[in-house]
TrEMBL record:
GO terms (BP aspect): DNA transposition
Top-level taxon: Bacteria
A GO MF label: DNA binding
Name assigned to this protein: Transposase
Length: 98
């Protein structure tokens, strides 16, 4: 079982710079550097997104309990907004002339 090779951030940045400045196909640049085309494409994408760290994992999602609590609070605020809309409609000057 082989382990995945790891590359320094400097190597990744140099590979991206070479791929973007050489004008050669990405597959050729990747082969010359001894890396996979997929890795080079991922590094380029991360570079454009501003994640110079290379293989950084995305942030973890919000935990389930917090998410459910936020959903409950959202429903509560929506009900309050509906109530306030009805109250303001009743108190508006247009409706006072009835």
């Amino acid at each position: 079982m082989s382990s995945r090779p790891t590359y320094s951030d400097e190597f990744k940045a140099d590979a991206v710079a070479l791929a973007e400045s050489s004008g050669r196909p990405l597959a050729l640049v990747a082969a010359e550097l001894g890396i996979s085309l997929t890795a080079l494409k991922r590094w380029i994408k991360l570079s454009h997104e501003g994640h110079e760290g290379g293989g950084r994992k995305p942030d973890l999602p919000v935990d389930t309990a917090k998410y459910k609590a936020m959903e409950v609070r959202l429903r509560e605020l929506e009900r309050e907004n509906e109530f306030l809309k009805k109250v303001s409609a009743c108190l508006s000057p247009k409706n006072n002339g009835r």
